[in-house]
Amino acid sequence: MRLVIIGGGILGTAHALAAVDRGHEVVQLERETEARGATVRNFGLVWVSGRSADELAITLRSRQLWEEIGGRIPGVGFRPAGSITLVRTEAELAVAEAAASGPTAAERGFELLDPERVRAVNPALRGKFLAGLHCSTDGAVESRQAMPALRAYLESTGRYGFYAGTEARTVTGSTVLDDRGRRWEADLVLVCPGAAHTGLTRELVGDIPVRRVRLQMMQTAPLGEPLTTAIADGDSFRYYPGFAGPALDTLNREESQAFTAARHRMQLLCVQRLHGGLTIGDTHEYDEPFAFDVDEAPYDHLTAVTEELLGRALPPVVRRWAGVYSQSIDPAAIVTRVRAADNVWVITGPGGRGMTLGPALGAETADLLNL
Description:
By secondary structure, this protein is α/β, with parallel strands linked by helices. It has two domains: 1-78 and 141-209 and 333-370, FAD/NAD(P)-binding domain (3-Layer(bba) Sandwich), CATH 3.50.50.60; 83-136 and 210-328, D-Amino Acid Oxidase, Chain A, domain 2. Helix content is 32%, strand content 26%. An eight-stranded mixed sheet has the order 5-6-4-14-15-16-13-17, sandwiched between helices. Helix 3 packs antiparallel against helix 8. This is FAD-dependent oxidoreductase.
């Protein structure tokens, strides 16, 4: 078959990879010269630890696929680093204990570590904390270099073409017309628009059950030592359904987040890039219109928490950014797939799970459509 995939982010590229791996030909169109949305404005985490029980199977499948992809495409920068969620209060510790003894703990690779064992796993953590929930199945990729690496691999097959700076204007039947007047014929059209819910997306499928979420993040200069795992703080328990339960209810009832953290719906996630710097975030904002500028208070809070856990000052911050991603509002939907016509689908809304689940979602779509 010949597929036209509209959208050059992780979801579109993962679908291209799934199709090419099954022997099909793919043309991928991206309106920017390079993916510039949530695909590159993230941690690069392959995050198993907090996924809900219903999402665990597809998350573990995606984790396995990322490891396989990293083996054949080293440029994506996959590493099975794991993560440690560091807890600083008794209420947070209760959530970690419940997770470590839960029915899916073994599948996730959960183990609750005392401070001495935390430092044995990740010696950079010399700060203040009561314990750490280690998740050995978590991983990371280099989000800013993964898409070019994947495309280079796809192009080497001879069955793939990437057209940057090309905006799809209309989809009529099996024909895509772009803004340069070119016509692309396809047996199947997959539209992966990310957070672009208007324009072509709305023309094809109207208003769909998704919303946009804004976040703020930052990156430091090289740390000067290895951070051997990703790290998170106890606030992250609030944002991942895998930690739901009585202990989390108690945490939410008894311990309000600091004003800044609560106002910006914050958690700490921190990943070391291959160049040594740290990507640190993030915030959650749901009500549009979103601000066009960034707020400094969240950065101050994240810096303070990270320094408390590391027990040292952070290197200088060299970049700050905001991003917007698409999130399905149906709690039962991991991604929103809407059929616009017999051979046209719109696929978006994985939320903050796009990098984690991209390969598995691409493979799942290929299975659903019998590619």
